[in-house]
Amino acid sequence: MDMVKDRLNRTRAGILWGGALVVILLSWTWVRSVKALPFDNDPAPQAGAKHVSPKKAATAKKPKPAPKPTAGTATSPKTPEESAVAGKRDPFKLPPPPTPGREGTEQVLGPLPPGMRGLVIGQLRVEGIVRLDTNNVMIAVVDNNRNRAYFLRENDAVYNGVVSKITPDSVIFRENALDSSGKVVVRDVVKRLGQGPGA
């Protein structure tokens, strides 16, 4: 009985290998026949139109070289910031600190980072605060001026500060701001539930 099973297994293996070889040979011949076909599938030329061979078409039009700078004009190589795509920020470069302005206002330079790192404290509005029953952690639901909700926990970093503490009715941020002399000062900003942005 074992001999019969062994013979059947060998026969199946032989059939599988034979089928695989046939598939490989058929694919190889098909690829060779496709490569032999001309790729000139242009529709029939219109009346009065000249037919140009592909070789002549390739040599007929050559791109013009870029104009050389004339004497007296200085060209400098572009910096990475100039050559970067407009609206994109280098992900490995920290955003600049906010510039000094009126008390409680921040001037943002350039595009903001995506996600929570792009949230400016002065533009946030606390929409809700949730306490998780499992580990007693507070989560604040905040909204920015783009009407998009974010979930913040304590010690989460935002554009110009960190979430310092979350209470049942407010979120306390530790904000990095510039005073009138240009020095970075750290201050606590309290955002209460339902309080509008900038307040």
Write a concise keyword list for the protein shown above.
alpha+beta, 3-stranded antiparallel sheet, SH3 type barrels, 199 residues, elongated, 3 helices, single chain, 22% strand, 4-stranded antiparallel sheet
Account of the protein in words:
About 25% of the residues lie in helices and about 20% in strands. By secondary structure, it is an alpha+beta fold. The chain is built from 3 helices and 7 strands, in the order αααβββββββ.
Q: What's this entry about, in short?
A:
By secondary structure, this protein is an alpha+beta fold.
Residue runs with pLDDT of under 50 for 5 or more positions: 100-105
Mean pLDDT: 74
What is the fold-level CATH name, i.e. the topology of the domain at 115-192? SH3 type barrels
Distance between the termini: 88 Å
Per CATH, the architecture of the domain at 115-192 is Roll
Shape: elongated
Helix share, percent: 10-25%
Q: Please tally the β strands and state the result.
A: 7
CATH class of the domain at 115-192: Mainly Beta
- Computed structural class: alpha+beta
| SS strand fraction | 15-25%
Walk across the major sheet and give the strand order.
4-5-6-7
Summed up, the helix count is 3
The profile of the biggest β sheet is: 4 strands, antiparallel
